[in-house]
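Treating backbone geometry as a discrete language has practical consequences that deserve illustration. The sequence in question and its structure tokens are set out directly beneath this paragraph.
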Amino acid sequence: MGTTTPPRTLAEALRARGDESLAGLLRARPDLLSPVPNDITQLATRAGTRASVVRALEHLDRFALQTAEALAVAPDPAPYDTLLALLTGDGQDDGDGRDDAGAAITAALPAALTTLREQALVWGEDTGLHLVRTARELLAPSPQHPSPTGLGPTVAEATAGMSPGRLQEILAAAGLPATHDPVSAVSALAGLFTDRTRMAELLDTAPVEALSVLDRLVWGPPYGEITPKPAPPVQWLRDRGLLLPVSTRTVVLPREAALHLRAGRAHRVPEPVPPAIVAAAERDPQAVDRAAAGQGFMALSTVEELLKLWNDGGPAILRAGGLSVRELKRAASALDVSETVAAFWIELAYAAGLLASDGETDERYAPTPASDEWLDLPAQDRWTHLATAWLAATRTAGLIGGQDAKGRALSALGPDLDRSAAPEVRRRVLALFASLPPGTAPDPQTLLARLRWERPLRSQAPGGPPAPGDASDLRSRIALWTVNDAELLGITGRGALSSQARALLDEGPDAAAARLAPLIPEPLDHVLLQADLTAVAPGPLERPLADMLSVLADVESKGGATVYRFTPGSVRRALDAGQAATDLHAFLATHSRTPVPQPLSYLIDDVARRHGHLRIGAASAYVRCDDEAVLNEILADKRSATLRLRRLAPTVLASQADPGSLLEGLREMGYAPAAESAEGDVLITRAGARRTPPRTPPAPVPEGPPVPDATLLAAAVRAVRAGDTAARAVHKEGPDTATAGSLPRTAPAETLATVQAAAMTGSAVWIGYVNADGAASQRVIAPVKVEGGFVTAYDHTADEVRTYPLHRITGVAELADEQTP
């Protein structure tokens, strides 16, 4: 510990640490920095609070936690050898059939103790190790919260309050000499249970059924219920103190007896070594990269299709927030994926800032302006944008379809989907992928076993196993979702981590984009037109070509090549968007590597000839046409009855339906009407007109305080050191000075005189200071100049020169000569 005298408290142990060690503590436990402690004593006090200790225990790995659990049932303080014996056992056969792991435990224990010391959960030298009191209370056994080790209370704890007569009866039954001193009686009974030879002789006389009772209690829980008239084997154990009463109907196996039966081990299965990750398959790394790149390109296509689906305004938002089940099914059908996968893509687009609420009265989801910028990026940059957003997102799509704590359904894009542990779990899963050789696909179950070893107590109350559906179970589910999502997104390919994903994790988005770019096919500027009114795109298309083709034709099938089909409806859609027949002929001739088929030319000309022959405007709505025969035909058609048409003039029909319904009704009857404005001009409907106002992506919900950077850590350590110096400074006594550790109080005149004298002599003084926010602190300063109601001084707390208003200095005290910095 760097001191000749062992520390007596945690504060003394922390005070003896170097600055680098203190910075490591604050880095591992950033909650201790909110706010920065005034001094070492306050830091130690905060490190011992229940909330902070629970958070620290949750970040321990399995063996470090087992070490802390062993210290919780060891004497306080416990020598290193005692702790080692609790983990390795005493070398005797306990009948458990377990291979001896003593060598591995002996090798791993120093590192586990170092971790516990660094996180201020254990302090003291190896001759006397102390587990902080709060951690001992959390991990020690009690009837309400059994110890994770399965051990019960000691003989002294279990016999507290027991009558001297009852103690004498137990001593007599166990063959121990009588004593009238209760303390001696308890010591004698505990000594019997810890003496292997005498304990073995006692158990040799026990009935077989009594040994069976001990076998059921030895590994926990150590508590059992008894009837008012217990069976003879149980009575035999009670008479000899092997079962001690907790209440009228509950007994407990004392810790010393259990440790004898366990051969001295605190844990049934110590786990000093992390579980190995087993390879499920070995792949060719280049094949993995190609598969991941192909899946990544499919991910881009899927997100683009989702944006296009909601281009004119997406589904309405539920009153409680999020998408309805019907809208999720509709999106899944349009994307040709399952509802679970559709929810993942929707949440990913939302996390990446590509989708958001439009904020209108009739609130709907729609693409954001950032989505247009994203679509203009190269494919590799679009992929890194999605992958980076997924890594940092706390919204967890896998929860969709489940229920919250109040039994309410969790919907896509709805509230209560944030899980702060998700980013850390994702990155840790991918880091385990990256720890394997390139092309190696790990077994998911071994990944889960490794994660549980690394964070066994994560979000789980110490002292109890995880319950189904609690946060520790969620952590495992997030890990499995991560494996599936990474494959969907192209992070992994064929179950192994791709090289572009390794670059993203290690070097950043630019390096990942550079790795991915050669694996993505170049966009094409042509299609192959066929006589059956289809067009085949043999690969990804350039964006202007793809956008125009999506308006002019319907996607019939996807895959390595996309097949588009031209229909009267699709051609009419292009004409509605302002294209003329000549424009469509020129577009197809320019971008087709095959001659334009005659049936397609006829289809375009036929639809164009009829397009706009009927004009529909607002009356509620009207239909006008220069050909009276066409209007007569419409009126005679029974299908027009629902439109409630009547003739206003030879070339005009009026309807009580709105213009949109009238347009759709006549199109279903086989006509090609066009909408017109109040001035009589044809209205052109252009796709993609609806966008939300500028939106920022949803901010991830942090998991506790952020990890401080090196600059903040260095400043915090300096502040704590200086505050500790001020709090412990020995100052010259005066009639108005306060006791050490509290703010000094002096009159303004005395304050001015003292700091002026210190400025002239170059000495340091101890001051109490209240800042503009009313926060009081103690500081050690060396005044340089005093003028205009301000003192300029070198502040040892901040390690810099600062200026303080004299009216905010509550008092000043001179430091004793030996304390001057």
